From TrEMBL:
Its EC number is 1.1.1.17. Residues 38-287 form the Mannitol dehydrogenase N-terminal domain. PANTHER family: MANNITOL DEHYDROGENASE 2-RELATED (PTHR43362:SF1), MANNITOL DEHYDROGENASE DSF1-RELATED (PTHR43362). It catalyses: D-mannitol 1-phosphate + NAD(+) = beta-D-fructose 6-phosphate + NADH + H(+). Belongs to the mannitol dehydrogenase family. UxuB subfamily. InterPro entries: 6-PGluconate_DH-like_C_sf (IPR008927), 6PGD_dom2 (IPR013328), Mannitol_DH (IPR000669), Mannitol_DH/Oxidoreductase (IPR050988), Mannitol_DH_C (IPR013118), Mannitol_DH_CS (IPR023027), Mannitol_DH_N (IPR013131), NAD(P)-bd_dom_sf (IPR036291). Residues 296-483 form the Mannitol dehydrogenase C-terminal domain. This is Mannitol-1-phosphate 5-dehydrogenase. Pfam families: Mannitol_dh, Mannitol_dh_C. GO terms for molecular function: mannitol-1-phosphate 5-dehydrogenase activity. The keyword Cell membrane does not apply. Signal peptide: none annotated.
Length: 501
C-alpha cells in the first residue's frame, strides 16, 4: 500500500479497471453478468452497501451465476448522488473496514443495477413486478415507515401517502411502489415477493407488514387482503456501524488504495445479521455466509436497539453538548463513557436472555466498537431524526423499567440531554444544527420552555402516555435543570456521584 499516491493518479473504478487494482484489494472473482437480480433493495445508502451487499458479495464468490443479485433503487432526490456514482462505475464500489489494527479494502459487486425512481417510475414498478424479483429489502430509515409512534398506527394523512393514494400509477413513496407492483403480480397470478425491512426498528417486519397492508387496504380492500394473506415480512436485526461517507474518505481510498471511487463506504470490522426464517418466495442460503437464521429475532433486536442504539443517542447528545465531533472522542471522555456504562446497566434488566450471547461480553464489545478511532463516526449522524428514534431506542426500556420499579436515571438523562440539545447550542454557546422532520416544533418548544420538560414530554406522538408517569417526568426534569444550569459534564459528575453512593 503506497500512501504517497495522489488522488489524481488513482484508477477510476469500473469493471474494466478491476484487474488493474492492487493485489491487496479483493475484487469480485465471479462473472457479474451471469447473475440475475432476485433482490430489489430500496434505500441504497452506506449501510446497505456495508452490510447486506457484502454478505451477498461473499455469497457470489461461493455461488457464481446466482439468482440473488441486487437491483438498487433510490426513491428520493437525496439519492441522485448515489445514482451518478454507481452508474459511473458499473455499480461497483469500495468498502473499507477500518480498525486500529489497519484498513482493509475490497470492491463489492453484488449490486448489478441501480434505478433512480424520479428518472423512471415505471422502470421501478416493472422491476418489482417481474417474477424474477423474489425479495424486496429496505433501508429507508425509521422515518420512512410512516408509523405514528404514540398510537402505533399508520400515518395515513402524511402528504406522501395521500399523494400515492391519488396517483397509484406514478407513486413517489415506498408503499406506492410496492403496492403498484404487488397489484400487478396479483392480477397476473405471480406470487408476491417477501418484504425484508433492514431498518433499526424493533419488529421491523411486523411494522412493515402493518403499514404496507394498511396502505394497500386503503387503495383496494381486495389487494389489502391479498397482501395480508400472501406477503411474508420477516423481522431481522442488523448491525454494523457505518458512518456517512465524507470527502476525506474518498481521498483516503484514492491515496491508500489507489482507487478513484466517487462514493466508497467506510465501516467497522464487526458485522451481524439475525433474520427470521420466513420467506415466501425462497431466499439465498445466507447461513453459508454467516447470517444467523432463526425463528425468533425479538431478543436479538431488543438487545441491539436498547443497548447499542440507545447508547448512541446518549453519546450523540452529551457529546454534542460537550463540544465533541466524533464518537471515539466522546468515548475517550471518562465521564461520558461512564454514563454509557450506567445506561447499559439500567437497560440490561429489561432484556430477555439472548440465545448464544453473553450480555456482559456484548456490552464490552460495544464499548470497544464505539471507541474505534478509525471510523470517525459523526455525532450528527447519531442524532439525526431523533423524534423517530427516541421512542424506538429508549422509551420502550423506560416503560419496562417503570413497570419493574427499576432505575431510569440514565434513560431519563438521555431524554433530558435530547431536550437540552434541541436548544440548538452546546455548552460553549456554539450552534448545533438540528436535523429532524419536526425540527420546527421541537426547537420551538425547547426555546420557549427551557428547563421545563413538560411541553416536550406532552408530545404524545413521541412519548405516548409517558407524561402520565410522575416519576419519569420528575427524573427528566431534574436532569434537564442540571444540564441547563451546570452543563453536560458537571451534570455527569453530580449524577455519577449519586449513582455510586
Ligand atoms: N449506518 C448504520 O450504521 C446503520 C446500521 C444499522 C442499520 N442502519 C439502518 O439503515 C438506515 C439507513 O442508514 P444509512 O447509513 O444507509 O443512511 P444513508 O443516509 O446512507 O441512506 C439512507 C437511505 O434511505 C433512503 N430514505 C430515507 N428516507 C426515506 C423515505 N422516506 N422513503 C424512501 N427512502 C428513504 C434514502 O433515500 C437513502 O437511500 C438507518 O436509518 C438504519 O435504520 C444503519
Ligand atoms: O441509523 P440510525 O439513524 O437508525 O441510528 C444511528 C446509529 O445508531 C446506527 O446507524 C448504528 O450505527 C447502527 O445501528 C449500528 O448497527
Amino acid at each position: 500500500m503506497n500512501s504517497n499516491i495522489s488522488t489524481d493518479s488513482a484508477i477510476k473504478l469500473n469493471e474494466t479497471s478491476l484487474s488493474h487494482l492492487g493485489n491487496n484489494i479483493r475484487v469480485p472473482n465471479y462473472d457479474r453478468h451471469q447473475i440475475t437480480n432476485g433482490i430489489v433493495h430500496i434505500g441504497v445508502g452506506g449501510f446497505h452497501r456495508a452490510h447486506q451487499a457484502l454478505y451477498l458479495d461473499n455469497y457470489f464468490h461461493q455461488n457464481p451465476g446466482s439468482e440473488w443479485g441486487i437491483c438498487g433503487v433510490g426513491l428520493l432526490e437525496f439519492d441522485k448522488r448515489m445514482r451518478d456514482a454507481l452508474n459511473s462505475q458499473d455499480c461497483l464500489y469500495t468498502l473499507v473496514e477500518r480498525s486500529p489494527e489497519g484498513d482493509r479494502a475490497r470492491v463489492i459487486g453484488a449490486i448489478t443495477e441501480y434505478l433512480f425512481a424520479p428518472d423512471n417510475r415505471q422502470a421501478v414498478i416493472d422491476t418489482l413486478a417481474d417474477p424474477k424479483c423474489r425479495i424486496v429489502t429496505l433501508t429507508i430509515t425509521e422515518g420512512g415507515y410512516y408509523y405514528i409512534e404514540g398510537s402505533g398506527e399508520f400515518d395515513a394523512n402524511h402528504p406522501t401517502i395521500q399523494y400515492d393514494l391519488q396517483h397509484p400509477d406514478e407513486p413517489i413513496g415506498v408503499y406506492g411502489f410496492l403496492t403498484a407492483a404487488l397489484n400487478r403480480r396479483r392480477q397476473q397470478g405471480i406470487a408476491p415477493f417477501t418484504v425484508l425491512s433492514c431498518d433499526n426498528l424493533q419488529g421491523n417486519g411486523n411494522i412493515a407488514r402493518k403499514m404496507l397492508t394498511a396502505f394497500a387496504q386503503m387503495q383496494n380492500p381486495e389487494l389489502g387482503h391479498w397482501v395480508a394473506e400472501q406477503v411474508a415480512f420477516p423481522n431481522c436485526m442488523v448491525d454494523r456501524i457505518t458512518p456517512a461517507t465524507t470527502p476525506a474518505d474518498i481521498k483516503m481510498v484514492a491515496e491508500q488504495f489507489n482507487i478513484d471511487d466517487a462514493f466508497p463506504v467506510v465501516t467497522e470490522p464487526f458485522l451481524q445479521w439475525v433474520v427470521e426464517d420466513n420467506f415466501s418466495a425462497g431466499r439465498p442460503n445466507w447461513e453459508s455466509v454467516g447470517v444467523q437464521m432463526t425463528s425468533d429475532v425479538h431478543p436479538y433486536e431488543m438487545m441491539k436497539i436498547r443497548l447499542l442504539n440507545a447508547s448512541h443517542l446518549l453519546i450523540g447528545y452529551l457529546g454534542s453538548l460537550a463540544g465533541y465531533t466524533y464518537v471515539h472522542e466522546v468515548m475517550a471522555d471518562p465521564l461520558i463513557r461512564q454514563a454509557v456504562d450506567h445506561l447499559m446497566a439500567e437497560v440490561t434488566p429489561t432484556l430477555q436472555p439472548v440465545p448464544g450471547i453473553d450480555l456482559d461480553n456484548y456490552k464490552k464489545t460495544l464499548i470497544e466498537r464505539f471507541a474505534n478511532p478509525k471510523i470517525r463516526d459523526q455525532l450528527p449522524r447519531l442524532c439525526l431524526n431523533s423524534s423517530a428514534k427516541m421512542p424506538k431506542f429508549v422509551l420502550g426500556s423506560v416503560r419496562d423499567a417503570l413497570q419493574q420499579g427499576a432505575a431510569i436515571e440514565y434513560m431519563s438523562l438521555t431524554v433530558a440531554a435530547w431536550f437540552r440539545y434541541l436548544n440548538g447550542n452546546d455548552d460553549q454557546g456554539n450552534t448545533i444544527p438540528i436535523d429532524d422532520p419536526i425540527a420546527g416544533t421541537l426547537t420551538q418548544l425547547a426555546h420557549l420552555n427551557g428547563s421545563d420538560a413538560k411541553p416536550l414530554l406532552n408530545l404524545t406522538e413521541i412519548f405516548g402516555d409517558l407524561s402520565q408517569s410522575s416519576h419519569f417526568v420528575e427524573s427528566v426534569t431534574n436532569h434537564l435543570h442540571r444540564l441547563y444550569e451546570f452543563g453536560a459534564k458537571e451534570t455527569l459528575v453530580l449524577n455519577h456521584t449519586k449513582s455510586d453512593r
